[in-house]
Amino acid sequence: MTWIKTVSPGQATGRLRTEYQKAIRRAGKVYAIVSSMSLNPPVLESAMRLYRDVMHRESPLTRVQRELLATSVSVFNECHY
How far apart are CA 59 and CA 23, in angstroms? Predict the structure, then answer.
């Protein structure tokens, strides 16, 4: 649960609603890491674009290697994402 003010999926409109809908299609729900950027939809859009580019675009690393690296960093940072 975030401790900052956020916009819930039920209250989201416009660009934020679009990003929330993408999050729900991708992960089944809107995780706190996504809603933490809800007050600034352009930042959320940029963060999601960066994630997609890093994880899904052509790379010398395989998708499995990228997921393993992301998981290792999350474990090191004690982050459950």
Answer: 23
Residues 6+ away with beta carbon under 8 Å from 29: 23
Cα–Cα distance, 81 to 8 (Å, whole number): 19
In a domain, 3, yes or no: no
Residue 20 lies in a domain: yes
Q: pLDDT by residue for the chain (81 residues), tens digit each?
A: 658 999 999 999 999 999 999 999 999 999 999 999 999 999 999 999 999 999 999 999 999 999 999 999 999 999 876
In a domain, 2, yes or no: no
In a domain, 50, yes or no: yes
Tally of domains within the chain: 1
Q: What is the pTM of this model?
A: 0.82
Question: Which domain covers residue 52, as residue numbers?
Answer: 9-76
Q: Which of 15, 46, 12, 54 is nearest to 30 (CA)?
A: 12
